[in-house]
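To assess whether the prediction recovers the assembly geometry, we first specified each molecular entity separately, as shown.
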Amino acid sequence: MILNAILITGRTINQGATIENKTSSDYQEATACCELNQKDICTLGISPGSRISVKTDHGDVVVKLKENKGNPDGIAFIPMGPWANAVVDPDTKGCGMPGFKGIPARIEPTDDKVLSMKELMARYK
Amino acid sequence: MTVITDALCPFCGCLCDDITVVVEDNKIRDVKHACKLGASKIMGHHRIKAPMMRKDKNSTFTEVSYEEAINEAAWILLNSKRPLMYGWASTVCEAHKKGIFLAEELGAIIDNTATVCHGPSTLAVHEKGLPTSTLGQIKNRADVIVFWGSNPVHAHPRHMGRYSVFAKGLFSEKGRKGRKIVVVDVRKTDTANMADEFVPIEQGTDYLVVSAMRAILSGHADVVPDTVGGVPKEQLVKIVELLKTAKFVSIFFGMGLTQSKSRYKNIDNAISLTFELNSFTKCVITPMRGHYNVTGFGQVCSWETGFATAVDFARGVPYYNPGETAANDVLIRKETDAAMIIAGDAGAHFPADSVRHLARIPVIQIDPYWNPTTEVANVVIPAAICGVEAEGTAYRMDGVSLRMRKMIEPLYPTDTEILDRITERVKELKGE
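The predicted structure of the complete assembly is given in tokenized form:
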């Protein structure tokens, strides 16, 4: 029921197509999700579309589970955006660049809701 | 109805210059030839209607005049001891010049979105230089294309058709049939699915894999272990042979290199591999730049200050040291006490700790659209969309400058006009 994975973040076509419309449900659909391969999804014991909690040393976030056949075992991918950035590593490693890839993460099913962009940002205030 | 042909797309670093736009009653009715990304941006949607302000970030905004918003923005910047001016990727070079002038006037830090994409590439270029070429050279000559940590099917959808994989040119008349495509990535992406050779590497091992390829290239395959970064030595030998015997190799790299472990050292190593391949054949390397004019800011900032990004004017002269003066450095250290975010979205694209600090300090946002930065802003100034409603200069990912055209008349002031007015007000308040 728990998956320890390495998290990476990055662009997707739907994230890019909605990037100028971040208040939309389309943007949330495109970016508030986490892609795993089928084997890792089986480890969690749930189906794509279910909600999962992604926790790292830097934060936690609830997103929707998606299947991506191209992911190797133990690699989780969240499209770049506010949901991904709730859990990435802020350390710029002396060169200005935070750690958007290669973050150890603990993933498990959850009944908690996926926060909207506004709700997510309200957590910071 | 007006049909505009050969317009430039203001989305990604490809700066596609063959877009057709149908305009009627000062509204864009149709976009042709653009990809999904470009079409969505050019068509546009609901805008921020008017300037807005609020004191308390948990309260709702009140609509105000441009004069009031600009006055408040000037006061915030002037009262700040350590202002940060961040963004600049989705605006034109003319606005960059104004922004750098204002940063110097304020003694501010000015940084652009490269800080979360190709900032490390800039550091690597300092170390090694950049053996590169225009995309036209690659279209006309390249017979081996490498995408390393880059997924153009999703991030630069027309790159492969216009400049690389499928493009037909003077010495590449066969297009895709005359080319070999190599993709190095952690995941089997949609770009990897199109490759002749997919090299799946373990996350964070890019530096090791490049080093192994350099060893093989220099005739020391014997020191390379059986697998490097999860890649069998035989495959690395095969790839190196493919590169060595090509007529023209073009390596494109993305965030897979810049954001992974080792950061700029990955690119430093990849540039060294490129140099060394030039002992055998022609080889060039090019960063896949994201926003359409993130390259332009690097150009303007370099000729204005001597540095490409993360420039600190606090000492009265430009000072540059990413790791100390980049946007996330000063936000995570809670050092900056006010921020102006323009043509970029720090709220969406910075780590939580940085956004948490933005939520605690006065923030001015200049942008056409409501986005996560708006949620933590105090002053919001809506602007025209450059490349759609405002003309200006932009730099393609290969450093070629192109003129963005205006497709429709703006209903909002341009970034350049807003920056001019803020600067004018700052000078008035300073008594200059």
